[in-house]
Amino acid sequence: MEKYVIKGGKKLSGEVVISGAKNAVAAILPAAILSDEPCVIENIPNISDVTIILQIMSEMGANVRMLNKTTVEIDPRTLRNIPVPYEKAKLMRASSYFLGTLLGRFHEAHVSMPGGCDLGDRPIDQHLKCFAALGAAYTIDGGMVNLTADRLVGNQIFFDKNSVGATINGIMAAVKADGLTIIENAAKEPHVVDLANFLNSMGADILGAGTDVVKIRGVKYLRGTNYSVIPDQIEAGTFMAVAAATRSDILIKNVIPKHLEPITQKLVKIGVKVEQFDDAVRVIGGDNYVGTTVKTQPHPGFPTDMQPQMAAVLTCAKGASMVTESIFDNRFRYVDELRRMGANISVEGRVAVIEGVDSLKGAPVKATDLRAGAALIVAALGAEGVSEIYDIYHVERGYENMEEKLRLLGADIEKVDEPDPVASEKKARKAI
Ligand code: UD1
């Protein structure tokens, strides 16, 4: 059982290089299944979600070859359409993308219901609505989502809910369908645009990604491509929060500053200095922050995936802050953990009210999901004393070499492997 041990309160300095975007690569790798030739994908992050996706594709028979640490070549021509089982699908939300991509290529898909962070209710009704509109029949049986279609035909689809996953799945299912598909109320997140750019680089005909309306004219053939994934908006935002919480001066490189705008604006509002360059931002923490309001919204609003890390910064801002979560039902599970560190937070439904305290104190805490874990790292680095963060496998799903990158900035962080007390207890009992 691995944990991070963090001695907080140290000022950090230097540069950090941001890796490829988890949520973009989570769509782009499965989308390679649609290609009729091998593809080379660069700037992929070394995170466990990527390992699992590539494993699923290899087990299906695709030829997957790492050309170097961040570049993979995928030849999907030998891939067979076998079901994606529960053991794999439960590990991440992105397993749902195998529905769109397998349906797009084989007109048939069998994928166990997707897992991912427990953020409350995460239905897939909009995904299914879209597949049905394109001509697929679906059943859900024994936890498996089964899709079949004689042929896929373009259609007009209006999403009742603005959904990143359903938009990406819709694009993947429509890219080789007959005729024109129009997706309205589409998600506009940078990773939706990156997926469309990837597919267009193979010869797809997708217009409007990044706006409310995406038009996809089906094509028969997708050629191989050499494509580089965009930098991770949320990893960059997390390091911005780290700089703010530790009152440090950090240069964050390999970013698209435009994608960071909603985060930058909130940090500047509370008293952090942010300088923007072409592909970097410099974040200079201050000594006194003032509380603010944050409301998560679909892109270009404040990203829900940055809500916990921003709340961690606000725990030490003067006065009251109000954080409203408008995307997910249950994204405040980290609050109890921050309270252990001395944060003063109350939660009522989807709103958290934070009364700023002078400083947090290190404590043993547990990551309840990926971004909750990131928030605890932010808090622990800014806190006085030692924190131990448990269940860091959540963090490793989405952050490449987090502790190494932080150590290079001067943080006192260690990854420690400690025996699981429950497993040891069971072993001891068996031995008696
Ligand atoms: C993706 C991201 C996740 C991010 C989220 C919102 C990936 C792998 N994950 O998740 O990191 O937090 O976008 O930016 O890219 N909904 C429905 N019906 C559906 C689909 C969604 O009601 O069929 C609802 C969800 O419950 C949620 C909202 O729509 O309330 C947004 O969810 P969605 O954008 O689909 O999130 P994900 O794609 O799961």
Word description of this protein:
- With 432 residues, this protein is α+β, with helices and mostly antiparallel strands.
- The protein has 15 helices and 23 strands.
- It has helices at residues 22-31, 48-59, 86-89, 97-106, 125-133, 164-174, 190-201, 233-245, 261-270, 307-314, 335-340, 370-382, 393-396, 402-408, 421-431; strands at residues 2-7, 13-17, 39-42, 63-68, 71-75, 108-112, 137-141, 144-148, 156-158, 180-184, 205-207, 214-217, 226-228, 249-253, 273-276, 280-284, 293-295, 320-324, 344-348, 351-355, 364-366, 386-390, 412-417.
- Strands 21-22-1-23 form a four-stranded mixed beta sheet. A four-stranded mixed beta sheet has the order 2-14-16-15.
- A hairpin with a 6-residue loop joins strand 11 (205-207) and strand 12.
- The radius of gyration is 22 Å and the shape is globular.
- The model has no long low-confidence stretch (mean pLDDT 95).
Query: Which blocks of ≥5 consecutive residues have pLDDT under 50?
Result: none
Major pleated sheet: 4 strands, mixed
Structural classification: alpha+beta
**Average pLDDT, all residues:** 95
Give the radius of gyration: 22 Å
Percent helix among the residues? 25-40%
* Coarse shape: globular
Distance between the termini: 24 Å
- The spatial strand order of the largest sheet comes to 21-22-1-23
* Bound small-molecule species: uridine-diphosphate-N-acetylglucosamine
- Helix count equals 15
Total count of strands? 23
In quaternary terms, these chains amount to single chain
Strand content: 15-25%
